């Protein structure tokens, strides 16, 4: 069912420092910061030949990434995003197999303007999974 790895998201306490690390130390191509208040994050996209990395910094006090950073103050891998062809069909199939979808279970528009859903990490090897409609 899942397709390409769309991105790996890394939560960071200092977006400017993390961006400089990817740009200057690792030599990657990085975007300008993009504020996404609806998702509670500011994001920088790191473009790699076969996927991308998203550096996430909390935006606002109710950011889910802020809670993650309380437990992981130095930052860390926050989620993996896999592409699916039809997000509603994917959600229905996963629910039928007992997987838990976070929030109200309805797809929302994600950082790339496409519908996304998040799946409970306890159902997927301890890793938060984002599905994005390709
Ligand atoms: Co993501």
TrEMBL record:
Keywords for this protein:
Cobalt, Isomerase, Metal-binding
State its Enzyme Commission number(s). Answer: 5.1.99.1
Query: Which top EC class applies here?
Result: isomerase
Alphabetically, which GO biological process terms does the record hold? Answer: L-methylmalonyl-CoA metabolic process
Q: Which InterPro entries match?
A: Glyas_Bleomycin-R_OHBP_Dase, MeMalonyl-CoA_epimerase, MMCE/EMCE_epimerase, VOC_core
| Substrates-to-products reaction catalysed | (R)-methylmalonyl-CoA = (S)-methylmalonyl-CoA
Sorted alphabetically, which Gene3D superfamilies does this protein's record hold?
2,3-Dihydroxybiphenyl 1,2-Dioxygenase, domain 1 (3.10.180.10)
Q: Where is the VOC domain?
A: 4-134
Q: Which family does it belong to?
A: Belongs to the methylmalonyl-CoA epimerase family.
- Protein name (Swiss-Prot/TrEMBL): methylmalonyl-CoA epimerase
- State the organism of origin: Sedimenticola thiotaurini
List the taxonomic lineage: Bacteria, Pseudomonadati, Pseudomonadota, Gammaproteobacteria, Chromatiales
């Amino acid at each position: 069912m899942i397709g390409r790895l769309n991105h790996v998201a890394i939560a960071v306490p200092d977006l400017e420092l993390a961006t400089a690390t990817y740009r200057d130390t690792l030599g990657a191509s990085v975007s300008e910061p993009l504020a996404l208040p609806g998702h509670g994050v500011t994001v920088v996209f790191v473009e790699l030949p076969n996927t991308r990395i998203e550096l996430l910094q909390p935006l606002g006090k109710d950011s889910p990434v802020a809670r993650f950073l309380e437990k992981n103050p130095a930052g860390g891998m926050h989620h993996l995003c896999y592409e699916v062809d039809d997000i509603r069909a994917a959600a229905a199939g996963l629910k039928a197999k007992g997987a838990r979808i976070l929030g109200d279970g309805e797809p929302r528009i994600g950082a790339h303007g496409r519908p996304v859903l998040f799946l409970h990490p306890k159902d997927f090897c301890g890793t938060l999974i984002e599905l994005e409609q390709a």
